[in-house]
What we know:
Chain A is of the alpha/beta class. Chain A has four helices and five strands, in the order E-E-H-E-H-E-H-E-H.
Amino acid sequence: xxxxxxxxxxSTILDVSGNIDMSxxxxxxxxxxxxxxxxxxxxxxLNLTGVAYIDSSGVASLVEGLKASRDAxxxxxxxxxxxxxxxxxxxxxxxxxxxxxxxxxxxxxx
Amino acid sequence: xxxxxxxxxxxMKKSSKLTRVFLLKLELRSHPNLLCVVRGAMEPLMDTLxxxxxxxxxxxxxxxxxxxxxxxxxxxxxxxxxIEIYCNRVRRETEGEIEQGVEIxxxxxxxxxxxxxxxxxPLDEVRPGGLGLHIIRxxxxxxxxxxxxxLNRLQLIKFKRASQGDCGSAEEKPS
Lengths: 110, 175
């Protein structure tokens, strides 16, 4: 799994590629919380276009990001989810809690 | 009711006899880096059995979460403990209708699971963690735990729905 950050206007986009499971989900959590809590970015977008699989520990990291953004008064946005990622969020009844967009353009325009 | 043993097929009460054909056995250590290997083995096997892409993803998800639970809870994060995974093609006849599917059995040598303490948390709570069992139960038709001697045994079964056609190719084309 690889994760990198890029700044676009006042937002940070975190590009993730590979699979997110219990072997690496702490990296996702750390990257999210760094942007939201430490850097105080007003909007963090997580690009999951390159993520083929995400497990419950990955979902837990996303929930932590969501809660941190709510606490900080910022926004946390997901885009590029494949069927697998949507399904796991749906089973967990979390899909509706997140701001989810299909593409980066849509997410940036939100 | 016990949350692990509670999940059974809706029609389990009907008379049905399960027959098994062994397909695959995986032996691995409890290192999280091996989760991707397990997923990588499941996907083509389920393809071979003729599961839909949606069901294939569900099975992979359930197996991955189950193995993760063994690593995290049964072995407390120790990365060098043994896990065995058996995959069987299964078939049952229920009221004259034949259903085919796959059974996955996970064995580990951790301490016995106190099933009264494993309770899926309410999903209306927005907090991280505790989702694995929900995901497993939401993905499979049968999820059943039992202690087998000195081993923990978790049985996962997914049946194909009637509209999915035959899934006998793995038995008919042995490698």
